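Students often ask why we bother encoding 3D structure as a string. The short answer is that it lets us treat folding as translation between two languages. Here is a chain of 253 residues written in the first language.
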Amino acid sequence: MALFRKKKSSARRGGAVETHTVEYPGIGEVKVAVSRRARRITLSVKADGTVRLAVPYGVPAERGMEFLESKKEWVLRTRAKYPEKPAPILPPFTTRSHTLVLLPCDVPAESTIKIRITATEIIVAYPVALDPVGETVQKAVRKGIEEAWRAEAREYLPVRLALLAERTGLRYNKVAVRNTVSKWGSCSARNDISLSLHLMRLPAHLIDYILVHELCHTVHKNHGPQFHALLNRLTGERHPALRRELRNYHTRW
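And here it is in the second language, the structure alphabet:
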């Protein structure tokens, strides 16, 4: 019987795993990680669609594949929840106040890609030998855009939140801008509000919707009927429509 085993050299590094890739029908590539530390078989799906099967050392390979087969539908459903691989971003592209500039440079292909954010531009300087729609350049482009969004968010969101708090009569403690991709914003028990820089992806009226949403949490710490009633009143009875519209946007690329 075939067993999942880990190389002895890996075992000496304090439980580091041995990994290999298998092609599984209906799923495609699956990364199998074998570890002495693992106590049971587990399965995970990353946002990029990567499937990882973790198995304890010595478990029969057939058992691992049986587990994978039993979770096949779950893998496909989970993958479907994530956005597809982002399309290449090329000029013309603008954020609220920045324009993307791609600058091919006559330097060796292995040279570092340089990103510079000015008051009005996102400048990505890359080796001319690299494909601007390739993942290497596109990763730098997305990073540059996020840096621009961060600058714009720090300038716009705290001011806008303060204005909306004054209009609604709701009070908060502190506000912070972070690169959060799990949610648009949050409000702590102390009424500290955290906002994702990815809010800058949204049109202005949806940004206001999220900000008012978090301000409502300074009164109601849950999503119960009273919370929804307050949010609906403060958005001019547009809460259901705005919530539906927001579903067309994502915090992830």
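Translate back mentally: The helical segments are 8-11, 61-70, 72-81, 135-168, 204-216, 225-234, 239-246. Keep this in mind for the problem set.
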